[in-house]
Amino acid sequence: MAKLASKVYGEALFQIAVEENRTDEMMEEISAVSKALEENTELQLLMEHPKVIREEKVHLLENCFKGRVSNDVTGFLAVVVSKGRFKELPAIFDYLTARIKEYKKIGVVTVTSAAELREDQKKKIQEKLLATTGYKALEITWNVDACLIGGLVIRIGDRVVDSSLKYKLEQLTSQLMKISLEEGKEGERAS
């Protein structure tokens, strides 16, 4: 249910951002709100406390953010809190951020290699990804995992391209096991 709520609320805020041509500003504002909430644990505790009534929570948030972020974001926060969805704000903001990046054709990519890549290698990978994905820009996180032995694992959203030696060896092992099992069955039939 929480995932559905984050999508519904996030999509509503996304539509406002697009209609008002404020996607960049909206991302900055939700980032600032997220940071403020993360850093102020007392505020979070108050917002999540069951004995503090929703109207007081809304008033508290409005006092904290009015004039610091747009009226759209302040009003949005008031709606989310008045509906009892404060705990879902991080998921809502994550959805909104992903949606805006998708809208702006910014790909979020994780590249994992067996060893640290040189800058020229990273640049080639980035150019190849831009040429093949249709994104205008990429936010790439570079990771190292020696268990891969060699090759790369590239994750873009829910798509994964695994060209690692570890994966290839696992595939080869699986194929050999199938062949071994099939030969074993044929040998039993011949007996």
From TrEMBL:
- What name does the UniProt record give this protein? F0F1 ATP synthase subunit delta
UniProt organism field: Hominisplanchenecus murintestinalis
